[in-house]
Amino acid sequence: MSLPKTLAEDVARNLVMVARLIDEDPEEAYAYSRIALRLASRVAAVREAAGFAAYATQKYAEALAEFRAARRMTGSVELWPVMADCERGLGRPERAMAMAGEPEVQKLDKAGQVEMRLVAAGARRDMGQIDAAIVTLQSPELASNSIQPWTPRLRYAYADALLEAGREDEAREWFGKALEADKDGSTDASDRLAELDGVEFVDALGDDEDETVDAPEAALGDAADQDERGDEPGKD
C-alpha cells in the first residue's frame, strides 16, 4: 500500500511467483525475490519473502539478514524460530540455543513456540547432545492426541532423535504416530518405517523389460531400411 500502483503491482507479481515456486524450484523463487527486493527493499513483506527464498536455497547468512530487516520494520517476533535455524545453518548451534532462551519466545503463538522447540532440539543434536534433544522435544504438544499442523513434524523429529539414540522400538512407534497425523505427506515417515522393517524399494522396470521396450523400435528400423531399398519384408 505504500508503493505507487504500478510499482506495487510489479512487486506483487514477483512475490506471487516466489510463493508458487519456493517448494518446487527454490532457485527460481530466489531469482524472483531478488527482483522484488530491488524494486521495494523498504517493504517488510518483500524482505521477509527474500529471507524465505534465501533460506530455501541454504543462503543462511543472507536469509538471516533479511529476516532481521523485516523484524526491525515490523517489530514482530514471528520470524524468531527461523532466524535461530539460520544460525544453525551457519554452524552456530550455540547461538540458536541462546535464542531459544530469550524473552521473544514467550511472545510467540503456539505454532511458533513448537517451531522454536524443534529448532532448539536440532541445535542440541548439532552439538552432539542427543539425550538433551529428546528431552527438549518432550512437551505437552508431543503428548497431546489433538492433531495440529505442527503435530507430524514434532512427532517425526522425536522419532528421529530416538532412532539416533539407538532406541529403535520407540522410534518405530513415534514414526507410526507421525504417519497417522501426516495427512498431507509433509514427512517421509512411511519410508522411515519401511526402512526400519527392512523393506527395500526396487525399480519396477527391470533390464528385461527395458530390452522388450526397445525391441519394437529396432523392428521398425529394419522395416524402414527394407522400404528404402525397395524390398518387401520376407522376400528375396
What features would you describe in this structure?
It is a single chain. With 236 residues, the chain is mostly helical. It has 13 helices and no strands. The N and C termini lie far apart (82 Å). The model is unreliable at 211-236 (pLDDT under 50).
Distance between the termini: 82 Å
Strand/helix succession? HHHHHHHHHHHHH
Largest sheet: none
What is the general shape?
A: globular
Specify the number of helices. 13
Q: Which class best fits the helix and strand makeup?
A: mainly alpha
Mean pLDDT: 88
| Strand coverage percent | under 5%
Q: Could you tell me the number of beta strands?
A: 0
Spans of at least 5 consecutive residues whose pLDDT stays below 50 are 211-236
Radius of gyration: 26 Å
Estimate the helix proportion, in percent: 55-70%
Give the gist of this structure.
Helix content is 70%, strand content 0%. The chain has 236 residues and is mostly helical.
Q: What are the SSEs and their pairings?
A:
Elements: H1 5-21, H2 26-39, H3 44-56, H4 60-74, H5 80-89, H6 93-100, H7 110-126, H8 130-137, H9 140-143, H10 151-164, H11 168-181, H12 189-196, H13 207-229
Task: Pick out its properties.
236 residues; mainly alpha; 13 helices; 0% strand; globular
